[in-house]
Specification:
- Helices cover 33% and strands 23% of the residues.
- With 175 residues, it is an alpha/beta fold.
- Strands 1, 2, 3, 4, 5 and 6 form a 6-stranded mixed β-sheet that branches.
- Strand 3 (40-50) and strand 4 form a beta hairpin.
- The longest helix is centred in the last third of the chain and has 22 residues, at 153-174.
Length: 175
């Protein structure tokens, strides 16, 4: 990836950060589910970013799919494109043996759960996890992604990729 090399990094990342975002859909929004933890009826955008915040892989599915259930599909989709990827930083939604068992067939992975301190109050910047949250903020600057209006999941993913191309082309144009 030229953007990573322009930032002084290796072309292929060895560590990434994974997270999901629940997004409301419109009435014509196609397949959707209910995310009880966020009280949102819609879809869930699952993204994997490198450690500088560039999108590596993205999938969209109904919001009722748990994070640890959606992660293996996302990781399997990028495995051949990023063979040196070994370390994944994640939040508590990805903890547990179910995800580790699903990922055992995908290769040698290390998942590090970055947890919030029990004594923390209010907003706390968490190591590594802030990177993927910033990427969500960057992607949400695109008006088309503010609310999921797409009739199909494929077109919702396509708009995420269009927004990420815009995101990655800016540093290259400035160089």
């Amino acid at each position: 990836m030229d953007v990573r090399e322009a930032a002084g990094r290796e072309a292929s990342p060895t560590a990434d950060v994974i997270d999901s975002q629940s997004v409301k859909t419109t009435e014509s929004g196609g397949p959707r589910g209910y995310a009880a933890e966020k009280m949102i009826k819609g879809r869930k955008r699952h993204i994997l970013t490198d450690t500088i915040g560039l999108p590596v892989g993205m999938i969209v599915h109904p919001a009722d799919v748990q994070d640890r259930d959606g992660a293996p599909d996302l990781l399997a989709s990028i495995r051949s494109a990023f063979p040196w990827l070994r370390h994944i930083f994640a939040d508590g939604g990805y903890a547990g043996d179910k995800l580790k068992g699903a990922m055992a067939g995908l290769g040698d992975w290390t998942i590090e759960i970055v947890k919030r301190s029990d004594t923390a109050r209010g907003f706390v910047l968490l190591p590594r996890r802030w990177v993927v949250e910033r990427t969500f903020a960057w992607l949400n600057r695109n008006r088309r992604l503010a609310k999921d209006v797409e009739a199909t999941i494929e077109s919702a993913v396509t708009w995420l990729y269009i927004a990420s191309v815009k995101l990655m082309s800016r540093p290259l144009a400035a160089a």
